[in-house]
């Protein structure tokens, strides 16, 4: 896998705010910066640092004709003009700007997102179980054996996600009245390894996508990497012939958008460790539909970029480490069960 992370990137921008936002965006994808500064500072460098690419973002390129001419004449590294001024972080326009930037970078450097490999998954599989499972809440009635899922929680993750999601699932008791839809950025070749590792120590059943199969309580649907999927109003799996759109596979944004559109406030999401900003576009719509948006606390992530992107939207209503997320989920389900019981009593 090519990541383009060899010598880093030279960033030339004449606006200090744009330099700051470009630096942040590159850091979030693990790209080293060989130099960042304005045109005058760059012209004064002797020697110019080695880099894989030169990224230029100028307010008016016509003000720097000699710089542009000199950069175009260089053969040792490609020159890339940026996608324009960065909007304010947290807005959907910013998420789209960041994706345009990295589409341009990947055209030159190859794939930027680091993914789990077989070695990291094997290492995860070799780890002993070290934490006790949380108890089933006293006031929560276990789900029936074949009960269709009415509450759906989407688990979105990328780099560092398998370990975090496994810790989350290992902490949960089985037979909860919910199902999970697990969208993990991973090479399709390692999906089978992931499926073996994920539920080794948990009480949850991992299922693969089958057309028209109903997702049931106590199950985790592993979203296919190369084929788009959604759930209809009866929680039946609907596979589409086309692949996921956009830079990610599977697309967490698409999974959240399609399921929330059908299931409204019965669809929720937890964004775990990962590079990039998948999930940040769909989080506001899911939140507006009445669903919960939670994230793994960034300081507990192997790669905090995805949770940070969702937090920046202002739509996340809880954050914690994997075990804290599991405990909060149990409290929420117990609260919902108690409220439903009181409602039935009042209506009787």
Automatic annotation (TrEMBL):
Q: Where is the active site?
A: 158, 185, 278
Q: Which residues form a coiled coil?
A: none
Q: Does the keyword Hydrolase apply?
A: yes
Q: Name the domain of life.
A: Bacteria
Q: What is its EC number?
A: 3.1.1.61
Biological process (GO) annotations? chemotaxis
GO cellular component terms, A-Z: cytoplasm
**What's the name of the protein?**
protein-glutamate methylesterase
Q: Which residues form the CheB-type methylesterase domain?
A: 146-336
Could you tell me the keywords of this UniProt record? Chemotaxis, Hydrolase
**Which chemical reaction does it catalyze?**
[protein]-L-glutamate 5-O-methyl ester + H2O = L-glutamyl-[protein] + methanol + H(+)
Question: Could you tell me which PANTHER family the record lists for this protein?
Answer: PROTEIN-GLUTAMATE METHYLESTERASE/PROTEIN-GLUTAMINE GLUTAMINASE, PROTEIN-GLUTAMATE METHYLESTERASE_PROTEIN-GLUTAMINE GLUTAMINASE
Instruction: List the InterPro entries.
Output: CheB_C, Sig_transdc_resp-reg_Me-estase
> Pfam family example for this protein?
CheB_methylest
Q: Name one GO molecular function term.
A: phosphorelay response regulator activity
Keyword Hydrolase belongs to the record: yes
